[in-house]
Each structure stands twice: as C-alpha cells, then as structure tokens.
C-alpha cells in the first residue's frame, strides 16, 4: 500500500504537480490567445464596455496571474518568500473561482429581469462564497534548499467546503435559469433562450465535475500536494467555460449586455 505521507511519495507527487501545472498553463495560454480579439474589441472601442464585463476581465486575468505565479514558484532556483508567493497564487486562484460563478449568475439575474426576489438571495450567496474564498487562504509553503518552494500544509476540509459551496451556488443559478427560460414562449427568441440554457448547462456540468474531483482529493487528504492537485484544473475549467459563455452570448446578441445593465 502506498504511503502517501512518505517524503519519497510527496516528492513524486510534487513532480507530477509540476508537470501538470505546465500543461495547464499552456492550455490556458492557448485559450487566452485565441480569444484575445474579443478583449481587444473593448480596448479599441469596437464594443461598448459595460460594468458586467469587469467580472469577465477579472476572471480571465486573475487566473492568468495565478498560473504565472504558480509556475514561478515551481521553477524558481534562488531563495524567495514562498509563503507570500503562494498566498498571492491562492488569492488570485480563489478569486477566479468566485468570478466564474458571478459571470453565470449575472446572466441568470438578467433573464429574470433583475427581480429583487432573485438577485438579493443570489447576492447573499455570492457574498458568502467570497467570504469562504478569502477565508480559505490557508496554504503554507516554505523554501527548501533542495526542492525550492514546497507546500508544507493545507486546510483540506475548509478548501473542500469552498468547492462544495461553489457547486451548490452553481446548481442554484442553473436551476433558476432553467426554470425561467422554460417559461419563455417559443418564437423569435427561442434560439437565444436555447443558447443561454445550453451554455449554462455545459458550464454547470464541467464546473460541477471539476469541483467534485477537487473536493474528493481534499477530503482524502493524502498529503499536502495531493490535497490541492485538482484545485488548478477546477479553476481553469470553470474560468474557461464561464468566459466562453460571456463571449458566445455577447457575439450572438450584443444587446443582451444592455439587458444586464439596465
């Protein structure tokens, strides 16, 4: 039976985590580059910038900064403040998880015509989500002369609570969206309704499965590395799909952004 807490196993898991992060960084950079034209349209003025897009841009770039920070932590060869670097990485990584949920929630609020009985409970859930995300920066790291920055401890159960809460929030948003869209009359808007629901459903399935995988590893608490090995894939998958929802909807019907604002 594998001794997950042995130093050899932790080193082996750390090497696997290192390779995984580099693959995921490449994947996200590809996604970022292929969708950069959409971002540039706002910078160049081709698209009108409205406040809901703040969450879209924060989502994309918080995750990018987190991935760059993690890559630095895994490749640095001279002694640095590992604790501060990993705190930075976890802060921006957790923020990307929360922002992905916000991006979908805003579309649901718009579908409900900003009804107070809908957006107030969602706002309360989102604030609770962020309270957990910010409170969950519990990872400990230190410098090792032989291995560089290493993770020494994590609060696995608290991190698991964050991902479970994320799944509940996303499920709530999806159910509200599905219920409202199901009541729309068929007609000229049916394609838009179908697009909103299908994208929301795809987002939920991918985010739910990735968050579930991360939660399982956290609850198993095999060792500090294995406890967080699925965190980054969960954040990346949620961010990619959430941002694609925003772009697809905006490209299909630019007036939908106005519905969110007004």
From TrEMBL:
<feature type="transmembrane region" description="Helical">
    <location>
        <begin position="157"/>
        <end position="179"/>
    </location>
</feature>
<keyword id="KW-0472">Membrane</keyword>
<feature type="transmembrane region" description="Helical">
    <location>
        <begin position="118"/>
        <end position="137"/>
    </location>
</feature>
<keyword id="KW-1133">Transmembrane helix</keyword>
<feature type="transmembrane region" description="Helical">
    <location>
        <begin position="228"/>
        <end position="246"/>
    </location>
</feature>
<feature type="transmembrane region" description="Helical">
    <location>
        <begin position="86"/>
        <end position="106"/>
    </location>
</feature>
<feature type="transmembrane region" description="Helical">
    <location>
        <begin position="54"/>
        <end position="74"/>
    </location>
</feature>
<keyword id="KW-0812">Transmembrane</keyword>
<feature type="transmembrane region" description="Helical">
    <location>
        <begin position="200"/>
        <end position="222"/>
    </location>
</feature>
<protein>
    <recommendedName>
        <fullName>Transmembrane protein</fullName>
    </recommendedName>
</protein>
């Amino acid at each position: 039976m594998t001794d997950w807490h042995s130093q050899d196993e932790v080193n082996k898991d750390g090497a696997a985590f290192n390779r995984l992060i580099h693959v995921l960084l490449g994947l996200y950079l590809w996604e970022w580059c292929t969708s950069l034209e959409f971002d540039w349209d706002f910078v160049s003025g081709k698209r009108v910038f409205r406040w809901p897009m703040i969450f879209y841009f924060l989502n994309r770039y918080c995750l990018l900064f987190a991935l760059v920070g993690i890559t630095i932590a895994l490749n640095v060869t001279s002694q640095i403040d590992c604790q501060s670097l990993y705190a930075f990485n976890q802060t921006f990584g957790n923020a990307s998880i929360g922002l992905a949920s916000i991006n979908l929630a805003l579309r649901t609020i718009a579908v409900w015509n900003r009804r107070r009985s809908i957006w107030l409970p969602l706002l309360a859930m989102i604030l609770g989500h962020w309270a957990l995300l910010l409170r969950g920066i519990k990872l400990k790291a230190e410098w090792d002369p032989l291995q560089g920055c290493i993770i020494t401890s994590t609060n696995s159960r608290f991190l698991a609570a964050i991902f479970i809460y994320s799944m509940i929030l996303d499920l709530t948003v999806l159910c509200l969206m599905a219920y409202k869209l199901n009541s729309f009359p068929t007609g000229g808007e049916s394609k838009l309704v179908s697009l909103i629901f299908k994208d929301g459903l795809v987002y939920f399935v991918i985010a739910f499965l990735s968050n579930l995988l991360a939660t399982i590893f956290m609850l198993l608490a095999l060792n500090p590395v294995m406890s967080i090995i699925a965190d980054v894939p969960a954040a990346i998958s949620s961010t990619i799909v959430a941002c694609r929802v925003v772009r697809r909807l905006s490209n299909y019907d630019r007036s939908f952004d106005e519905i969110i604002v007004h």
